[in-house]
Amino acid sequence: MKSIILGGGCFWCVEAVFERAKGISSTEVGYSGGKANPSYESVCKNDGNIEVVRLEYDETQSSLLEILTLFFKIHDPTSWDKQGADIGIQYRSVIFYESEEDRILIEKFIEEKQKSFDKKIVTQISKLESYYKAEPYHQHYFAKNPNQAYCQAVIVPKLQKIQAE
C-alpha cells in the first residue's frame, strides 16, 4: 500500500470522489501544511493548514498517475486558494508527497497536464511534513450526510461528472 495526500477544495468533496475510486483502500480527511495540532476552527481562521485527504491505495489496482488524473478532473488546479464558492488558504490545490520518486512523477504529470490548460496550474507540490486527522464528524461526511444542502449542491455534481465519463 502507498499513500498520497491531496488538497483540492473542501475535503468532503475530494474524499467523496476517492471513496468510490478504483484501488483506493481507505480515505481520511485531515489538515496539513500549517500550525501543529489544528482544529477545524483554527483552519477556518487561516492557521496555514489546508483541508486534505489522505489516500491509501493499492498500486496494482490504481497508479499514482490515475489518482492524479482523477484529482485534476474534480477540482480547478489553476485556482489559487479557491474552489467554487469555497475561498481561503484551506482550499488550496496541493499535493503532499512522501517519496522523492513520487515528487518526480508528480512534477512530470503537472508539466504534461499544463499543455491542456489555458491558465497556469498553481497546484503546490510539497513534501509532507505533518498531517493531522480531522475531527470525527468530518470523516466520510458525504456518506453520512448525502442529503445535506452543500453535499447536494457541490458533491453530487462532481460525482455525476465522474460517473458520466
Short description:
The chain has 165 residues and is α+β, with helices and mostly antiparallel strands. The protein is built from six helices and eight strands, in the order βαβαβαβββαββαα.
Report on the architecture of this protein.
The chain has 165 residues and is of the alpha+beta class. The model has no long low-confidence stretch (mean pLDDT 96). The strands form 2 sheets. Strands 7-6-1-3-2-8 form a 6-stranded mixed beta sheet, covered by helices on one side. The protein has a two-stranded antiparallel ribbon with strand order 4-5. It is built from 6 helices and 8 strands.
The biggest beta sheet, please? 6 strands, mixed
Radius of gyration: 15 Å
Strand percentage: 15-25%
Distance between the termini: 27 Å
- Going by helix content, strand content and strand pairing, the class is alpha+beta
Give the rounded overall mean pLDDT.
96
Oligomer: single chain
Number of H- or I-type helical stretches: 6
State the helical fraction: 25-40%
Shape: globular
How many β-strand stretches?
8
Unreliable spans: none
Order the strands across the largest sheet as they lie in space. 7-6-1-3-2-8
Strand and helix order = EHEHEHEEEHEEHH
